[in-house]
Amino acid sequence: MSASPTGERPPVGGAVRSLIRLRPRAGTTYVSSDRTVLATRDDGVLVPELDRGLFVDETRLLSRWRWLIEGAPPQSVSASNVAQHSWLGYFIAPAPGGHAERERDPISGAAQEAVELRLSRYVGGGMHEDVDLTNFARWPIRLTLALELESDFADQAETGGDRRQKGRKTSVWSEGEGAWDLTTTYEATHRYDHQGETGTARIRRGLTVRFAHATTPPRRRRNRISFDVSLAPGEAWHCCVDLIPEIESRRLAPRYGCRSFEAPDNPYERRTAIFLDEATRFSSRESGTLAPVVIGALEQGKHDLAALRLFDLDVGERAWTPAAGLPLYVALFGRDTLTAAWEAAPVSTDLMRGTLPVLADWQGKEVNDWRDEQPGRMLHEAHDGPLAALNFNPQGRSYGSLTTSGFYPFVVAQLWHWTADKALVQPFIDPAVKAIQWLRACSDRDHDGFFDYRTRSAMGTENQGWKDSGDALVHADGSSARTPIATCEEQGIAFAAMLNMAEVLLWFGRRDEAKHLYDDAVELKKRFNAAFWMEDEGTFAMALDRDRRQVRSVGSNALHCVATGIADKALVPRTLDRLMAPDMFSGWGVRTLSSEHPSYNPYSYHRGTVWPVEHGPFAVGAYRYGCHERVEQICRAQFETAALFDHFRLPECIAGHPRDGDHPFPAVYPAANSPQAWSATTVYTLLQAMLGLQPFAPTRMLFIDPFLPPWLPEVTLTGLRVADATVSLRFFRKPNGHSDYEVLDKQGSLHVIRQPSPWSLTANFGERAKDLLAGALH
Fold first, then answer.
1. What is the 8-class DSSP label of residue 256?
2. DSSP reduced 3-state for 80
3. Which residues contact 343 (CB under 8 A, 6 or more apart)?
4. What are 347's strand-pairing partners?
5. What would the DSSP string read from start to end of 514-578?
6. Sign of torsion, CA 498 765 576 753?
């Protein structure tokens, strides 16, 4: 951000107090729960457009949903989500027979002679909509209220392009006891032959739209349902509309009924309440700083995770996994859910408890080139949409990621560090070991000791590292790097996996395996720093290409090497300086690619954007090496970014424009997902880095090492869980600038110790986990 004429930065509070409020995918509102997503215009109207519709299991069950009064759309005056699963919209139209109806600009007078249409929507399973029409004119009125609706059963990927799956659609209109049903059914088949996987796939999907409790009966004509309504002054008319999806043989009744803005007592609300009631709480008495934004982002993150919960994958009430993000990633993703689960640990271990067993169930069991599957390889994604279900693509079960297999063992170790529950962690040990064995056996094609990727699928993901878009990996001249590619961050993830699993295996009595993993990790670190370091650039190469030449582009990848600890300590200060230089650090965060690179584009997914999720690990990495000023810089940028967005939600990514006088706020990546699970959780990792908070449940210890910046002078954590203990801590900044803490409450056996994390490089010899591990193994 530009300095003032005096050389000082503008006050932090300016970002909080400004009128800037940004929202990804402006113009579209999302109402969602579980696998059901309603995407409409901001006024609640749904007409056939790209990415809009009522989607269940990635199938568009509704492509049009528009209410009309006297054949014309009413005027939207206010509309907003109430919760993620609910929405309220107010609309007005001029009362028939009044002056406003005959004026050139009827809307300007409609408020004085208003007929109000109020729509209340509740999504969950299916959807319930309350339709309330009220006559606020001073005379009786008669009018026609009509609903236009259509169903096309398109796959989510087909809404903006060619239709690939084509089936048979039938509609039936029927009348029951006080209710009228329009039931539309869709059936499709597809014969496939993909690299030896052959067969015929079938789907059956449907939607019943039920109108009930209406004081006047509806009429149907093609895709329009009409009601004749007569209202005295002040009189109201009401109708309940239930949308009941059918996916194969599953019929999804709406979880909510009339007047459900105050959550009713149902199993889904109870499960959500358990998580929100038991999760760590955050608070601060400070104002006039970024503290309200920090607390707002920390609190909102819990609600966003709860909204993304995939209930059908629940392992238990306190063991669950979220979708990756709304609206494009309402499905199970391996690395995304693992990242979110790890980062959410200071709030709750529920996500790790749920994600690890689910991914173990999906672990690769056979060689299947179509799906990039091999025994031991961890899942990348699992979709339920028609194209995946009909096997037009392999995304029903795809393994096209190197990251998941390395990250799974790391998260197993984190669950151990937070719980020390042997019975809980034991089932995940062998899947983690198998994932590492897959890395060794199948992702080092030329046996040079580095882990690379190359798809074997005819429709596989080309780039299978952290940055998985097709043009993410580019040489310094702008040309694309060819596979097989060994990216720098994937070496770091593998290093962290082996080092952390070695420690866990030692605790579980598997000493020989632990020693083997530890020695491999040490050797990998030596090879890595020699092969990837670019002395002239002062940072690590993005990757090694198929000829094992350095991909000499400067990107955010290198900071993951700091985060995972694979970077040599002597090289870290230069790496941080290079990656925080103006061409990389926009002021709002670290760009994915240097703005000086010939392929830089501030809107490109991985060639110039800024991703909040990367910054939690970046802050942890800077803390690991004792670079606390960089921790503050990284965290401040992310919370100042959060201050610009509704609900302090960090989106999937923002454009990489510089923070200067010409760019007072950043553009948003046009297709950014929000809420996104790992953007919601990165704020917890940022806070963890500032507090130096690290549990070690096996020894009933919680290490803290706080360095609070001026813009966060105080923060309180209530109900933090480590093993079977809970603790409440207040962290505060003293007048001399030093940070301190006090234990407000502690239940159970737990020692709170002030020292740098044992996994940091600033702990004294004998305090470091790596030293202790080496001593135990040698």
1. -
2. strand
3. 616, 678, 681, 682, 684, 685
4. none
5. HHHHHHHHHHHHHHHHHHHEETTTTEE-SEE-TT--EE---BTHHHHHHHHT-S-GGGHHHHHHH
6. positive
Residue 763's contacts (CB-CB under 8 Å, 6 or more residues apart) are 755, 756, 757
Distance between CA atoms of 319 and 419, rounded to whole angstroms?
14
Helix (H) or strand (E) holding 135: strand 126-135
DSSP 706-754: ----TT--EEEEEEEEETTEEEEEEEEE-TTS-EEEEEEEEESS-EEEE
Chain segment 208-267, per-residue pLDDT in tens: 999 999 989 999 999 999 999 999 988 999 999 999 999 999 999 999 999 998 867 889
Between CA 402 and CA 464 the distance in angstroms is 6
User: Left (φ > 0), alpha (ψ -120 to 50) or beta: where does 590 sit?
Assistant: beta
H-helix or E-strand containing 687?
Answer: helix 677-691
Report the C-alpha gap between 119 and 734 in whole angstroms. Answer: 51
User: Are 625 and 572 contacting, i.e. CB atoms less than 8 angstroms apart?
Assistant: yes
Cβ atoms of residues 25 and 672 within 8 Å: yes
Contacts of 565 (CB under 8 A, 6+ apart): 492, 495, 496, 499, 621, 624, 759, 761
Amino acid at 333: F
How many Cα atoms are found within 13 Å in the side-chain-facing hemisphere of 397? 15
Name every residue whose Cβ is closer than 8 Å to that of residue 714 and which is 6 or more positions away in sequence: 284, 285, 286, 291, 708, 730, 731, 732, 733
Q: Write the CB contacts of 401 (distance below 8 Å, at least 6 apart in sequence).
A: 334, 335, 378, 379, 380, 381, 461, 464, 468
Nearest to 588 by CA among 620, 628, 635, 539: 635
Kindly report the backbone phi and psi dihedral angles of residue 241, in degrees, each rounded to the nearest multiple of 5, phi listed first.
Answer: -125, 120
Please work out, in degrees rounded to the nearest 5, the angle formed at the alpha carbon of residue 308 by the alpha carbons of 303 and 130: 80
Using only the alpha carbons of the chain, give its radius of gyration.
Answer: 28
Q: Is the pLDDT of residue 106 over 60?
A: no
- Measure the CA–CA gap between 595 and 657, rounded to whole angstroms: 9
Can you name the residues that pair with 128 across neighbouring β-strands?
Answer: 122, 242
CA–CA separation, 141 vs 236, rounded Å?
11
In whole angstroms, give the CA distance from residue 377 to residue 431.
Answer: 9
656 torsion bin: left (phi>0), alpha (psi -120 to 50), beta (else): alpha
List residues bridging with 510 in a β-sheet.
none
When pLDDT is averaged across residues 474-487 and rounded to a whole number, the result is: 95
Mapping DSSP onto H, E and C, the string for 377-430 reads CCCCEECCCHHHHCCCCHHHCECCCCHHHHHHHHHHHHHHHHHCCHHHHHHHHH
8 Å CB contact between 680 and 628: no
**What length does the chain have?**
778
Cβ-based neighbour number of residue 82 at 10 Å: 15
pLDDT in tens, 527-580: 999 999 999 999 999 999 999 999 999 999 999 999 999 999 999 999 999 999
pLDDT over 90 at 7, yes or no: no
For residue 30, list its beta bridge partners: 39
pLDDT band, residue 775 (cuts 50/70/90): low
**Residue 430, CB-side half-sphere exposure with 13 Å CA sphere:** 4
State phi, psi for 194 to the nearest 5 degrees.
Answer: -125, 100
Pairwise CA distance, residues 518 & 539, whole Å:
25
- Token output for 576: 């941080």
pLDDT per residue as tens digits for the range 64-105? 999 999 999 999 988 999 999 999 999 989 999 887 555 544
pLDDT at 642 over 50: yes
Cα 650 off chain centre by: 10
Per the CB < 8 A criterion, the answer to whether 255 and 124 are in contact is: yes
